[in-house]
From TrEMBL:
Name this polypeptide is given: GreA/GreB family elongation factor
Species of origin: Oceaniferula marina
Residue span, Transcription elongation factor GreA/GreB N-terminal domain: 458-523
InterPro entries according to UniProt: GreA/GreB_C_sf, Tscrpt_elong_fac_GreA/B_C, Tscrpt_elong_fac_GreA/B_fam, Tscrpt_elong_fac_GreA/B_N, Tscrpt_elong_fac_GreA/B_N_sf
UniProt cross-references to Pfam families, sorted A to Z: GreA_GreB, GreA_GreB_N
Length: 611
């Protein structure tokens, strides 16, 4: 008890309990105020009943003694808040030199645990400048995790915890995994364990707790959290492989069992997993499927994202399955069924792993996929593929390197007519085509533009397009304008899903309107009478035989008259282009509309089409 206060107690002027509390706000003592923060008592006047306290956020505040007793709490001189008043420069130096030590001192003053909001109030603005606090905390948080003496929460609602000093490095790493309930944090903790296997040398039994927790989680979470289960099982098996004293029980779940029983959900669960995790899973396919593992892994090859595509390709090549892999790619390219990630891999590896299968047909596959994705008006899965085609300056030249003149012109024609690219991008790409193959120069001359713009079609098909445009102008576009108006009334356009969806549809409708108006402005109607049957022309019925002598008929009509199920094709389609100008006895290569495979046919007869 302060000497001056003790005299008042002895004289009976104040109770002993009041004297003890009054001594806690004697000059030189520390206290805290809910609004003003930590403070140090500078002076008091017991006779006048006043005290002056230098608060963190209210310097030299004069208060009534009675009010000070009620509104402040005593603060130990070793508390972090007291150090902010006495040693602020030293603490600010720790901000840059040792953020781990700084945060450790804060937690030690708060019982070893505190919320992130409490930490913000303790440091932001006073020790760490408020303007740079968020950036500093992001960097400090990483250092805290790497120190292994903290349990760092992934959510702001969870506490930041200072672990006991007595914990060994091994126990700390295990606690990082066990203490968290967030699977993402647990995965990070498993990564730390795998990076620090050396500290567990001779003490691998400590990791049995981790193995047991993984097994329990995987049994419960397999149906709802398959993606996390796969990550956990890969990490578990990696740990067991590195320590002889760790083993799986017969009842423990196996990675191979999960792969075989969860085939339907496997692809979606693999997306987003790290390349190392995907590689481990793909390596398990042989144990899972036996001799048929290569066929099973090729089924998911084009579905698992860019990382998965790369890892499967490496695995197949490293295990001597080059021929199987190459055959699969060739068939998929011919059938136009490769997705964007596989095509991107093919192009990137065209001078290395994919040199054997990278051909002119790869370019056709790219254009076909881009066109299909564009027409679908759905999620743009091929945006990375389109970006690569634009950014890789030598890709088109490599595509056309071994193509004959007809193939080069066909590729250039497809590219020139594609609606996928802006006019500026299309011109840039066509310049590369012409540079690689000068004989395609006339594709961008006025003569070719007249052929392209002056398309021919039946009056019936033209009327259908006019009806589509009329419906677009009178119904769909006005309806979309009203939808945008209603969605805008909901407010907060940044988070307004209805508004964003309506605006996206506006862009789709505008693009469709522009396309229809341009097409209708340059179309020519025909009734297909008087067609020249000396060779395949617009308005002819052509009979062809395959190498086995089986007959097939195609009717070549106008640009918008195709009926695929009846073998009626547009003269601008792949089949139409292949047939146009062919004479009886000539062999042509066409793509079968059912199997999507190329085959050679011989022209037998050509007749005039009769409507």
């Amino acid at each position: 008890m302060h000497a001056d206060v003790a005299k008042l107690v002895q004289a009976g002027r104040i109770p002993e309990a009041v004297g003890k509390r009054l001594s806690e706000i004697a000059p030189g003592e520390f206290c805290s105020h809910k609004a003003w923060g930590a403070g140090k008592v500078e002076s008091w006047d017991l006779q006048a009943g006043k005290v002056v306290i230098n608060f963190e956020r209210q310097p030299n505040q004069e208060m009534a003694l009675k009010f000070a007793i009620q509104k402040t709490e005593p603060l130990d001189s070793e508390h972090f808040s007291a150090h902010k008043l006495e040693n602020l420069d030293q603490l600010r130096e720790l901000v840059e030199t040792d953020p781990v030590e700084l945060v450790k001192r804060v937690l030690e003053s708060h019982g070893g645990t505190m919320s992130l909001d409490q930490l913000d109030r303790e440091l932001s603005g006073s020790v760490v400048p408020e303007a740079t606090y968020k950036k500093w905390w992001d960097k400090a948080k990483k250092a805290l995790r790497e120190s292994h003496i903290f349990s760092v929460p992934s959510k702001r609602t969870d506490p930041l915890v200072l672990r006991a000093d007595s914990a060994s490095p091994q126990e700390t790493l295990v606690m990082e995994f066990s203490d968290s309930r967030d699977p993402r944090v647990k995965i990070k903790a498993l990564e730390n364990i795998r990076k620090n296997f050396a500290v567990f040398e001779g003490k691998g039994e400590i990791l049995q707790q981790v193995i047991d927790e993984i097994n329990a989680y995987c049994l419960k979470g397999r149906k709802l959290h398959l993606s996390t289960v796969l990550e956990f099982l890969v990490a578990r098996d990696d740990i067991i492989d590195c320590f002889d004293d760790l083993n799986l029980a017969d009842s423990d779940i196996r990675l191979a069992d999960v792969i075989t029983t969860e085939q339907d959900r496997l692809v979606d669960s693999l997306k987003g997993r790290s390349a190392a995790t995907q590689r481990k899973i793909f390596e398990t396919f042989e144990d899972s499927f036996g001799e048929g593992w290569q066929d099973e892994i090729l089924k998911v090859f084009d579905e698992v994202g860019s990382r998965g595509v790369t890892e499967i390709a490496r695995l197949l090549q490293e295990t001597g399955a080059d021929d199987v892999f190459a055959d699969h790619l060739k068939k998929s390219i011919a059938n136009r069924c490769l997705g964007p990630d596989a095509l991107i891999w093919l192009c990137r590896e065209r001078e290395k792993s994919a040199a054997e299968v990278f051909t002119f047909e790869t370019g056709n596959s790219i254009l076909n996929l881009l066109d299909r994705d564009h027409v679908a008006d759905g999620p743009n899965r091929s945006v990375r593929l389109r970006t690569m085609l634009m950014s890789d300056k030598t890709l088109i030249a490599d595509i056309l390197a071994d193509a004959d003149e007809a193939e080069a012109r066909q590729f250039g024609r497809k590219l020139y007519q594609s609606q996928v690219f802006t006019e500026l991008d299309r011109k840039s790409l066509m310049a590369r085509v012409i540079k690689a193959r000068p004989e395609t120069h006339d594709l961008v001359t006025g003569e070719f533009e007249r052929k392209v713009e002056g398309v021919i079609s039946s009056q019936e098909s033209i009327d259908r397009r006019k009806a589509d445009l009329d419906k677009l102008l009178k119904e769909r576009i006005p309806q979309n304008v009203e939808e945008i108006k209603i969605a805008r009334s909901y407010g907060d356009l940044r988070e307004n899903f209805e508004y964003k969806a309506a605006k996206q549809m506006q862009a789709v409708l505008a693009r469709r309107r522009s396309q229809l108006e341009k097409e209708l402005a340059h179309v020519q109607a025909t009734d297909f009478s008087g067609a020249d049957t000396a060779c395949v022309n617009i308005g002819t019925l052509v009979t062809l035989h395959d190498d086995a002598g089986k007959a097939i008929q195609y009717t070549v009509l106008g640009a918008w008259d195709s009926i695929p199920e009846e073998n009626v094709v547009s003269y601008l389609s792949d089949i139409g282009i292949a047939l146009m100008g062919a004479k009886p006895g000539e062999r042509v290569e066409v793509r079968d509309m059912e199997t999507e495979k190329n085959r050679f046919l011989t022209v037998k007869t050509i007749e005039a089409y009769k409507a």
